[in-house]
Amino acid sequence: MDRLFKWIKYIFIGLTIFVVIDKFIFGLTIVQGMSMQPTLHNHDKVFVNKIAYFLKNPHYGDIVIFHPPIDERKDELFIKRIIAVEGDEFVMKGGILYINGKKVEESYIQHENYEERLYEVTKGKVPPGMVFVMGDNRNDSNDSRCFGFVPKKNIKGKANIRIWPMEAIQSFSSIEKTN
Questions:
Q1: Helices (H), the chain
Q2: Catalytic annotation on 80?
């Protein structure tokens, strides 16, 4: 009987450790949709670092998992790229992104003719405590252009590594804005 209780205790401790790690330290997510193509594809599996922003702020170019600031979708998780951080002034003109008055070369975006649409937000200054996010597939992305700025507190983690499919394993790091 003691042996059974010992095993139950070990299983309980193991499950507790697993839940804590999964909830607060790192986890996996499965990409749903095409909004991050060509960087990420539908059904890619991504390792998410959930403690990435405890000691540092989100950075331009980070791919993040977050709850959108949309009441009816606040329980969903989105995956997008940070395009502008607090204090940045941005504008989208003809599919070209300008941050703080400088054209940004975005090698990671889906290169196709940009479709001008009536987006809610295509220019502005990112308020304190917020970020502006967009999908890499600019013509097929529900992002900050539609729902506005994302509070940093809504960010649940940073996508660090695509781990599936195996032939497409890739590490993601912050990128620098270029002119």
A1: 2-20, 144-147
A2: yes
**Rounded to the nearest 5 degrees, what angle is found at the Cα of 86, between the Cα atoms of 85 and 90?**
65
Residue range of the domain that includes 65: 28-171
Domain annotation covers residue 121: yes
- Strand runs labelled E in 42-114: 45-49, 63-66, 78-85, 89-93, 96-99, 102-103
Res. 88 pLDDT band, cuts 50 70 90: very high
128 vs 23: which has the higher pLDDT: 128
Indicate whether 129 belongs to any domain: yes
Threshold 0.90, pTM exceeds: no
Exactly one of 50, 80, 152, 158 is catalytic; name it: 80
For tokens 């003691």, the residue is 2
Residue of 6, 9, 23, 35 with catalytic role: 35
**Is 35 assigned a catalytic role?**
yes
Q: Tell me what pLDDT residue 179 has.
A: 45
Q: What is the pLDDT of residues 59-80, one digit of tens each?
A: 999 999 999 988 777 778 899 9
Both tokens of residue 53? 């922003």
